[in-house]
Amino acid sequence: MSMLDFERPIFELESKIEELKNFGSEKNITLGPEIKKLEQKLDKMKTDIYNNLTTWQRIQIARHPYRPFTMDYIRMMMTDFVELHGDRQFADDLALVAGIANLEGEKVLVIGHQKGRDTNENVMRNFGCAHPEGYRKAMRLMRFAEKFHLPIIIFIDTPGAYPGVGAEERGQAQAIAENLRDMSRIATPIIATVIGEGGSGGALGVGIADRVCMLQHAYYSVISPEGCASILWRNSAKAPEAAEALRITSEHLLKFGIVDKVIPEAQGGAHQDPVIVANNFKKVLLEYLKELSALTPEELLEQRYNKFRKIGAFIEKQESSE
């Protein structure tokens, strides 16, 4: 298991407990009381560390290499997944997967960013950074879902849209902008969830939904902390300070009304117990699908419009006439 810097004391104590268990077993010595004390100390240490995480530490959890990705959640929550490919214009973008699946007896369209577990897979998936053909593929299939009255479930997990020259030449900004416009008009239920990183327009390009959720340790931001620090301080090492200032954790965004629900994770992150997280996740999806399916297409579109229209509300103060 990969270890984050702030988790080092936990791993060291876990190793010590394991050593004592092995030693007692080899020497036939009873070390139960000593081991129990250390396990109690370990439980307290985990509680103290994970209940007091800084924003930067939570971002590290969101980026954990063993954190479940889109395909993992599809396997844990759905059945009969059939992947669909291509934007019918240029290529198939493997950074953004999509297909039809069965969720507790209901056919749904699933779309999500997909990262890799090793270098080769990350190169193939472009580290979860979609090209314009990925966003066009997503919109093509959303129109397909609208035609056949299929609910749409979206998993967001990307540092941002790919900023390469080729992507810009093929209309990266236009593809994202068109998705923002057209997703607001898709007359079928849409549920989006940030499962890891929710970076910039790359996340928002598939993020216009009737309900927007976040996993507990995910983040959702207009810019990465490193990018923000590079702009403000000309120093990406100040990313932890930028992370605090950006207010990008699930608690902040729930308070601001950007997201509708925070889905709890296992202690230490979703990678510690993916099954528990998937079960929590599935309950939320089923609850929202039931709620949204009761609405007419007109009601659905009006509520979606109003949801995003009220984000960023402000009050104008009239200047004094004196």
Multimeric state of these chains?
A: single chain
SS element count, helices: 14
Q: Within the CATH hierarchy, at the fold level, what is the topology of the largest domain? A: 2-enoyl-CoA Hydratase, Chain A, domain 1
Briefly note the structural class of the backbone.
alpha/beta
Overall structural domain count = 2
Strand residue percentage: 15-25%
Q: Which stretches are poorly predicted, pLDDT < 50 over at least 5 residues?
A: none
The sequence of SSEs as H and E is HHHHEEEHHEHHEHEEHHHEHH
What is the name of the CATH superfamily of the largest domain?
Answer: 2-enoyl-CoA Hydratase, Chain A, domain 1
Q: From the alpha-carbon coordinates, what is the Rg to the nearest angstrom?
A: 22 Å
CATH architecture of the largest domain: Alpha-Beta Complex
Summarize model confidence as the mean pLDDT: 91
Secondary structure: helix percent: 40-55%
Largest sheet, in brief, is: 8 strands, mixed
Through-space gap between termini: 66 Å
Number of strands: 8
Instruction: Quickly name the level 1 CATH class of the largest domain.
Output: Alpha Beta
Overall geometric form:
globular
